[in-house]
Each structure stands twice: as structure tokens, then as C-alpha cells.
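EI: anyone free to look at a 106-residue chain?
SC: sure, send it
EI:
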Amino acid sequence: MYIFVRFAAIVTIIFGVLLFAAGLGIAVYGLAQNVALTELLNAALLSGSPYRLADARFWAILVGLALFIAGVMISAQGQLMLVFVDLANHSRETNVILRGFRGKGQ
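SC: here you go
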């Protein structure tokens, strides 16, 4: 059980890192290649619509920020999984450490 939860936590951390790297990449691409992204979105997504996108920077930054925040939260969840797995696996050592903290606090 320990191995599977630890593996799932590591995969979760890697997925989160990739997700927030993708969010950062989308935001930078939206700022650097605004005209190309605007033309791509108008041609691909809005071709059958009477609406046209004039500037894609705001939407690229918004999507990039959402992916970045989601990636950070997913990575944090993976790190918490690792902490809880280590606490459950080393409960005797954890009790010794916590007793040491209690002794110093008094």
C-alpha cells in the first residue's frame, strides 16, 4: 500500500508541475504571439459565429493563470500525500519527534 500511494503522490506532483508549466507557457505565448493567436482563434473557433476576437492577450493570460493555479494546487496535494504516507509509515519516529517538540514548548 505504501508503494502505491507514494507512486501516486509522485505522479500527482509531476502532473501538477507540468500543468503549471503549461499555464506559464500559454500566458507567455499569448503575450508574445498575440496576432497569431488571435487569427488562430478567429479562424478555428469563431468561424461560424458573427463574433470576432480582437485581442487574445487577456484570455491567454486568464487561461494560463487558471492552469498555473490548478497545477500548484495539484502539486501541493501530491506533496501532502507524500507527507501523510511518511507519517503513517514512520509513526514511531513521528511520536518521538512530536514528544521532543512538546518538551521544548513547555
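EI: The two ends are 37 Å apart (CA to CA).
SC: 👍
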